[in-house]
Design brief:
183 residues, mainly alpha, 0% strand, elongated
Amino acid sequence: MSEQDEPENESELEREAAGFSPRSGARRTPESGPPAQVRLSFWIWVAASAGLIVGFLLLPARQDEIVAELVEADPGGASAEDIAAGLPTVLWMFAMAGVAFGVLSLLFAYKMREGTRSARSVLIALTLVMVAFHILPLDPFVNPVTTLAVVLACVAIVLTFLPGVGDYFPKLPRTVRRWRDTP
């Protein structure tokens, strides 16, 4: 190993210890790649993201069913014609939000596969939002495809916290702050 290689390798180790992914020119070697659980989690995230996108894009096709469910849920409320007039906008907003969540999930799953600890945290937050959407009383807007996507996302999150995976996501060093850490 030459002297020129040492500082570059040292800086990559420092980047990894600080919780950052390797630079694009210095990718991890296959020997030091992600554990099997992280690779499996990544592919489950790909499936969950695809399911989320497909599930929400299917909502506008179910418009008549959703109108009937909403009228049945609140018989004294708005009429079916009023609901049918405003529903396409709501459905397309849900569809675009589903696509955005799917794309964000893919992006952060890719970063998680590279070992970025903060990406794992963002994926947890995205999963919690998806679970909250399914827990809230939004039954007409939930379909089996989105429910499967949420279950897959939960499984993918659990895989990233199994024993032996924690070392792949390095902890950030504690920062010393003058006003808090001095006597």
